[in-house]
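Box 3.1 A note on notation
Throughout this textbook, protein chains are presented in two layers. The first layer is the amino acid sequence; the second is a token string describing backbone geometry. Keep the layers aligned when reading.
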Amino acid sequence: MTGPAGGNSSGVTNVPAPSPRAALARWLDTLAKAGWRTGLAVERVPVTSGLGRVTAEDVFARWSSPRLDCAAMDGIAVGAAAMAAFGTGLRLPGSAFDWVDTGDPVPADADIVIERELLLPQDDGSVLITGLTSPARGRNVRVAGEDFASGQLLVPAGRRLRPGDLAAAAAGGHAVLAVARQPVVAIIPTGDEIRSVGTPLRWGEITDTNSLMLAARGRQAGALSVVSEIQPDEPDALAAEIRAAAADADLVLVIAGSSRGRGDHTAAVLAQVGGVAVAGAAVRPGHPVLLGHAKPGEAGSRQAAGTVPVIGVPGYPLAAAVIFELFALPLLVSLQGWQRPGDTRRAVLDRDWASPPGVEDWVPVTLTPAADGLAATPARRGAGSISQLARADAWWPIPVGQGRFPAGAPIEVHPISAESQ
């Protein structure tokens, strides 16, 4: 039975808790030594189904856009030489021009498009041009390759595909795109008192909101989230469920049971089914986090010969949310080859604030417009407060060693977006 670093199979450690950064590094190192492989798995999907997927290779234009010189306005296409011959402000015979709509190819002998608003069609097929003097060559004409040239990079590898990316790829000749396979996140809720959403509650029972939240956050991060049945506080049942979940998952999240209460078995079970690399990190909320791995060992399963990362997620909602951002998100980003841009904003504290200096403190804040930008209001303490997550606009991660901040201090926050980032 493999125990946590510096401790034993029960999850109790005898060394100071590592910082989140050090904990992540220790976990990744242990996973690698246990045989975890992170090679990018690639699949091809129709461009129409690519929204939110991560490109596995650069997308280059197969042809130019526009492919031909084309009209940028509705009107008539005419050659500059014809305009010079007939003069401006005069009548052009029908033989001197072609009617075109926006996007139509421009005839080879035309290099000007005069918009309909300046034209007065005549009964004999000619037009009278009004309000136009000396039109420049190329007026209202989109030149071939004006948007992009054949061979030009349209979408880089590692991009989380947006609507505009899909349109550009399609315009460049791509009906199918190579993307990273979506990682599978298996979520295992535990606890004799936990009940599924919508179940009538008796005294002492709690609705399983953590699975709902983590599954949704997993989808935002590009993963496929699979939630298992709620597991009782029974070690053998939990061990069997972790092994079963790990058979086809890329990451397993076990909710609750990571502390040291009478019903907290996750550390011992995780040591039994694989190993524990980290038991506790210097972060608040989320200190009791467990970072380890499982060995599925099921013949025929996708992960039969592999090692699957497992996170023991604390049961308090704020703690669960923080642990996902610190440990689950980096793994999902890596598995998809996602070149995720940093997303921080500056704000100013609207009150004095103090945090324990010995931990990385993640504080949910609300943001409101202020004279000098954004004002940040930290939420009251309470890792079990679900409503704080609903009200928060951003996370304020306070580094270890920085405990006191006066009102008016500038801070950096990470916005909580309603859409995938």
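Confidence is low (pLDDT under 50) at residues 1-13. The longest strand covers residues 360-370.
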